[in-house]
Design brief:
alpha/beta; Rossmann fold; two-stranded antiparallel sheet; 12 helices; disordered N terminus; AB_hydrolase_sf; hydrolase activity; Putative hydrolase; Epox_hydrolase-like
Length: 315
């Protein structure tokens, strides 16, 4: 992409682009190595706003609203992890970026892992932030929302008048200098996004592709050994109420050479709760690791080694 002026290089610059005929909203700015930021379920690129200015001092960020989310198109289609990973590959290509450090939070973490699995040649580093797809356990609320038929009653719980009332109260408290906590803002942003009918439909398709009554139904744990050649950072809040911290430790053990950072006193939205601290961890990771350069033979080597180990075990 073209160079940016000093005045706008760190601005949270929202733009649009068409990918496969669908309008996609994204934010980009900064300069340096490319960092792809993938938000969570019912989220948008707005989730990353607290870190964009600082991150832009060190990297070129690309933060899209995933299809079905935010201001991007919400077609009737495939919202699986694989489909979203392929979309992100095509978005990066459309923007002129060959490769990126891929950062994903919650659902975005699952998509980031899928991206590194499907397109390892385009993944320089992998950063998992309170990531989904690493175990069955998940918030009971998400299991409830995945119930068959619940989408028929969801409109009752997402009425515009609720937003109007809550925002009026919030504004009143704001005048008294009582601002809501960052994690409360993130939860409220996700909730209000579901007041739009098309977003709600896309949310339901997305949720059911990864969660059912038992919990998370998609796991990357059996393929994490393939990330051994990709520098990987795992970041988790020790008070995460949505995805257990045990998943962080298990992923760390499964990915050889990975780094694990536990942010004490943080929940699921740690990039909003402690943005400076989170950005420092991310930038340090980028600056102290060499970007992976993977090719077909690397995948062949890893898969071949596993097959050989299995044959040896059975001998």
């Amino acid at each position: 992409m073209g160079s940016q002026t000093n005045q706008d290089r760190h601005v949270s610059d929202r733009r649009t682009i068409k990918v496969h005929g669908h309008e996609i909203s994204y934010r980009t700015g900064g300069s340096g190595p490319v960092v792809l930021l993938i938000h969570g379920m019912a989220g948008s690129s707005s989730a990353w706003k607290p870190i964009l200015e600082d991150l832009g001092e060190h990297a070129t960020y690309v933060a899209p609203d995933l299809p079905g989310h935010g201001r991007s198109a919400k077609p009737r289609g495939d919202y699986s992890l694989g489909a979203q990973a392929s979309f992100l590959r095509d978005l990066l290509a459309a923007l002129g970026h060959d490769r990126a450090t891929v950062v994903g939070t919650s659902l975005g973490g699952g998509i980031a892992m899928q991206f590194s699995y499907q397109h390892p040649e385009r993944c320089e580093r992998l950063v998992l932030v309170g990531a989904g797809g690493l175990g069955e356990e998940v918030s009971p609320l998400l299991k409830l929302l995945a119930l068959p038929g619940l989408e028929l009653v969801m409109p009752v719980a997402f009425q515009p008048f609720i937003r109007t009332g809550v925002e009026a109260v919030t504004g009143w408290f704001g005048k008294m200098g009582l601002a809501p906590a960052p994690k409360t803002n993130e939860m409220w942003r996700s909730y209000t996004s579901l007041m739009d009918g098309e977003t709600r439909k896309a949310f339901t398709h997305t949720l059911r592709s990864v969660v059912d009554l038992r919990g998370q139904r998609v796991s990357a744990m059996d393929k994490l050994y393939l990330a051994a050649d990709i520098p990987t950072l795992i970041v988790w809040g020790d008070e995460d109420p949505i995805i257990p911290i045990d998943h962080a430790h298990e992923a760390h053990a499964a990915i050889a050479g990975s780094r694990l950072e536990i942010m004490e006193g943080c929940g699921h939205f740690l990039y909003a709760e402690e943005p400076r601290r989170f950005t420092k961890l991310l930038v340090d990771f980028i600056e102290t690791t060499d970007a992976a350069e993977l090719h077909t033979e690397d995948l062949n080597r890893l898969l071949g080694a596993e097959a050989a180990d299995e044959v040896a075990d059975k001998a």
